[in-house]
């Protein structure tokens, strides 16, 4: 059965902060992502090779082997970017019913990735968007705690599940999902819903370099499973989450 694919509701970079404030989400096309981040369009695809050696995610409670990932953490304040000591990824159960409450230690991102000028620009752009869209005009520069996740979802077992926990929030302030690449798959539809109403949106990120940003307090999100087109395929994403002041798990 054919799957219907809906195009993303792209907005120009100049409207990103307004769209986030008004609707709780915004999506940029690849060229506009590059403009927003202050990098050349080709720079956004330069990372693709870093997704080819991601270690398996050994914490999947559904027994699947379809997800590979790396994880690192950073603190961003204005243009200053600092990587912090490697730490576990943790979410409370009420945000992630499947994997919440677990100290999940994933392999760190490669040094060559996190020290590149393009990487630093992406972190600055995400933090700047959180500052502009989520805080009052004129607010002091916030300290944004950013968790970075490299994901590869593959179809070696037949079906890959980008969000096995289902529709969820992450417990942060801003979520950014970058599509790095898709190879020989169908599905992977993004679905977002307003937490306080039945309003929602559905679309498929299919262009490498495109990015979706979400106000996590207002929006619930999920991505549907992917299926192979042929023998084997995958979907690569970079997910950056911003939380003001502290990382999840540091509140007590």
Task: Give structural notes.
With 252 residues, this protein is of the alpha+beta class. A hairpin with a 2-residue loop joins strand 2 and strand 3. Helix 1 crosses helix 4. 40% of the residues are buried. The model has no long low-confidence stretch (mean pLDDT 94).
Describe the secondary-structure layout:
Blueprint: H1 16-23, E1 25-28, H2 30-37, E2 67-77, E3 80-83, H3 111-114, H4 117-134, E4 144-154, E5 174-183, E6 185-187, E7 190-194, E8 200-203, E9 211-215, E10 219-223, E11 226-228, E12 234-244
Antiparallel strand pairs: 1-9, 2-3, 2-4, 4-12, 5-9, 5-12, 6-11, 7-8, 7-10
Counting structural domains, the number is 1
Mean pLDDT figure? 94
CATH topology: Jelly Rolls
Helical residue percent band: 10-25%
- Figure out the total of helices: 4
Number of strands: 12
CATH superfamily: q2cbj1_9rhob like domain
What does the largest sheet look like? Answer: 7 strands, antiparallel
